[in-house]
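B., you asked whether I could sanity-check this one before it goes into the benchmark set. Here's the sequence:
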Amino acid sequence: MEPAQQRMRVLLIAGLGRSGSTVLGRLLAQIPGFTMVGEIGLLWRNGFVDNVLCGCGQPIRACAFWRAAIGAAFGGFDGIPAETLRQLTAFWDTRRRLALRFAWSLPVSGARHAALDSYAQHVERALAGARAASGCRVIVDTSKTPAHLVALASCPSVELHVAHLVRDSRAVAHSWRQRRRRRQVRDAEVYIEPVSSAQTALLWNGINLLTWRLRRRAHSYQRVRYEDFARAPLDALAAVLQPLGETVDSTGLSGRPLRLDVHHTVAGHSDRFDSGPTDVRLDAVWRQAMPIGARLAVTALTWPLLLAYGYPLLPLGLDRAEAQAMRTPS
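And here's what the prediction gave me:
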């Protein structure tokens, strides 16, 4: 293991997608010395196989940042054999079952251990390449998933910090009910198809519980609610940065609206392609737009964790703080 002062500090934003991880990561990346790579767990498919758009708008293989990072890590985009790429993408596709076994200390086969080790080694090299290309001291990774957390925690050169981002399960389920275009795909209109409310509710339970169970594998763990982040972004950022011994640089982030720059992200929400002044504010559209049946079903499936995270079970409308947050910036 490398000496502590030489290890890569990686801040993993964990949780379920559609919880605000991309905008949180982008704000963190505005801090001098930080860089955001997006969901680096999808680098193998998005960069090596499909060559989709980086957050900067260039195909990943044409992006100067990723050309430098992958060159330093693997000698270029042809440096990983096709069979290894297949195994790396297969690990991502089966990641949830593996995380379940590690979280509850269930037996893990030799083949699955080998797949995890290979994935972790390649992610570690890719992160080292990103650090070399950016000169950063902290890498923000929004891969989110519990299995990716396990992989990062096993990397000898990584000092892993976890920001567990949670959002009201009804809001997440409503977002996943929407059909959204994949802006990262060039020259074609490809969409993310809707996911049923029940399926999202079960995933919300599982991923948040697994992340909590695996928290001790990280150097530090901090849970942040999306709603608190949306109301007071700088306060939430300060809480996330505190375990790293970092502070919000007043010259990089201050006031409202906050400015978001373009970052070299391999995957994430489509708003990663947008830049400029951004007023981070609460998105509570689900309270008016979500069908009552779907809302009740998600509440019934997720109520224990909703209560644990401080969410009301029967939110009939916006509370006073939420209404104020949606009307005016804080």
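One thing to flag: The domain at 4-327 is CATH 3.40.50.300 (Rossmann fold). Otherwise nothing jumped out at me.
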